[in-house]
């Protein structure tokens, strides 16, 4: 069976709730490898909820559907405050990226409580702003930024990552609506160790199986390169 689209591979999946310091309950899901301990954890931060972003935004949903089985990764997804998905609605209201710092903190508290290993923040669009603004406040392995618009994260907040040893992986679509590779390289130059990867032909939403596979491959390359190349068939067979 070809791995593409909404295909969901075997995993342990659990509906979870996160509690913020300001008393909100956020809904989410934790996906774990079915028959092995995870080697690392993806804490995913979804696109802008006022523009339709939520924990089921397709790249994040496909990461949870595939990577526990293909790369032995734990994948945590959740709706930030005021966001609705089929899983449910998180308490509170969208706060433009300010009070959402408490949502990121609640996710990282959950990671510690469950002793999930090597947490990476994986932000997409609005989620990249949360990763850049608040990721340094937590014990993480690194950050992966998909389609960063750099609307809310200030130049100082970006530059602050230069003083850390955390890997900063930035995937920038060639045809992005907000920030394209040449400008991204300029704006992330403040972080000498940032890896800015331009993706030919891609747009902000990473539509299409080709771009989905590229994103997931780059994520796994950063987090568990031993799992590459990712199989394209399930169950895996040699050479695919």
Description:
The protein has 240 residues and is α/β, with parallel strands linked by helices. Helix content is 27%, strand content 22%. A hairpin with a 5-residue loop joins strand 1 and strand 2. It is globular and about 45 Å long. The termini are close together. The model has no long low-confidence stretch (mean pLDDT 97).
Strand and helix layout:
Elements: E1 12-19, E2 25-32, E3 40-45, H1 58-71, E4 73-78, E5 84-85, E6 88-89, H2 100-113, E7 119-124, H3 126-134, E8 142-146, H4 155-159, E9 168-173, H5 181-187, E10 195-199, H6 209-223
Parallel strand pairs: 3-4, 3-7, 7-8, 8-9, 9-10
Antiparallel strand pairs: 1-2, 2-4, 5-6
Helix pairs in contact: 1-6, 2-3
Mean pLDDT, all residues: 97
Morphology: globular
Low-confidence stretches: none
Give the strand line-up of the largest sheet.
1-2-4-3-7-8-9-10
Largest sheet: 8 strands, mixed
Task: Please report which band the strand proportion falls in: under 5%, 5-15%, 15-25%, 25-35%, 35-45% or over 45%.
Answer: 15-25%
Order of helices and strands: EEEHEEEHEHEHEHEH
**Range of helix content:** 25-40%
Provide the gyration radius in Å. Answer: 17 Å
Classification by helices and strands: alpha/beta
> Count of DSSP helices?
6
The count of DSSP E runs of length 2 or more, i.e. the number of strands, is: 10
The end-to-end distance, rounded to whole angstroms, is 11 Å
| Subunit organisation of the chains | single chain
């Amino acid at each position: 069976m070809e791995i593409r689209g909404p295909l969901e591979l075997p995993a342990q999946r659990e509906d979870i709730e996160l509690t913020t310091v300001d008393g909100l309950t956020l809904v989410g899901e934790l996906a774990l490898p079915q028959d092995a301990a995870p080697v690392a954890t993806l804490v995913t931060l979804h696109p802008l909820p006022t523009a339709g972003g939520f924990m089921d935004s397709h790249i994040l949903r496909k990461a949870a559907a595939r990577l526990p089985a293909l790369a032995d990764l734990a994948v945590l997804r959740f709706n930030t405050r005021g966001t609705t998905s089929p899983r449910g609605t998180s308490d509170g209201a969208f706060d433009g990226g300010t009070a959402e710092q408490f949502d990121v903190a609640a996710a990282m508290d959950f990671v510690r409580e469950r002793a999930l290993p090597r947490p990476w923040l994986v932000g997409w669009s609005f989620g990249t702003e949360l990763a850049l603004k608040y990721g340094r406040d937590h014990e993480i392995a690194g950050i992966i930024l998909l389609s960063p618009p750099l609307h809310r994260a200030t130049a100082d907040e970006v530059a602050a990552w230069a003083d850390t040893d955390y890997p900063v992986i930035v995937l920038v679509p060639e045809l992005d609506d907000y920030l394209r590779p040449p400008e991204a390289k300029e704006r992330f130059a403040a972080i000498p160790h940032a890896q800015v990867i331009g993706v030919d032909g891609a747009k902000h939403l990473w539509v299409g199986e080709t771009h989905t596979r590229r994103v997931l491959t780059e994520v796994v390359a950063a987090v568990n390169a031993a799992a590459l190349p990712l199989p394209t068939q399930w169950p895996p067979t040699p050479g695919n």
